[in-house]
Each structure stands twice: as structure tokens, then as C-alpha cells.
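Subgroup meeting minutes
Present: P.N., E.W., G.H.
Scribe: E.W.

1. P.N. recapped why we're keeping a running log of single-chain structure predictions: easier to compare across weeks, and new members can see raw inputs and outputs side by side.
2. G.H. added today's entry (86 aa).
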Amino acid sequence: MSIKPAPRTVEPLVEAFATVLRRRRLAQDLSQEALARRADVSMRFVSLLELGRHMPTINTMQKLAKGLGVPLSDLVREAEAEPAKE
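Output recorded in log:
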């Protein structure tokens, strides 16, 4: 008998940040690669963040905000206001 790992649950704020990050990136017509270059992170990491598979550090969040040309506080405020998924 094989044991399957428990499904990963995504923290609501991580999921909300992922949604905000993707929405902001697309609003600027940026690819994940372009944002990654601007933020000095890997494209794969941007992808995993947008999927909610990684929890960004405050330093990473600051890099992403800078890459998007917005204050970090704007991204956090938007993520906090993002409706929770049921």
C-alpha cells in the first residue's frame, strides 16, 4: 500500500498575493520572464509565486514591487483586500 502525501493547502494571503502579482504583471503587459529580469529573480520563481506554490519573503516582495514599479504597500494592500476563495 502506498501512502499519498496530504494535499497542500495554500494560505489565503499567499493565494491573494499570487493573484495580485499576476494581475499587476498582466496589466503592464509583462511576461513572467520580463518581470523576473526586472526583479532579479528567476522566471520559474515568478511562476511558482503566481501559482501560490511558494511563499515570498519580504525581500522578494520588495524586488517584485520594484520590478512592477509600484510601492510594496500597494501590493500588500491589494492582497489584503482580495476576496478569499471558498
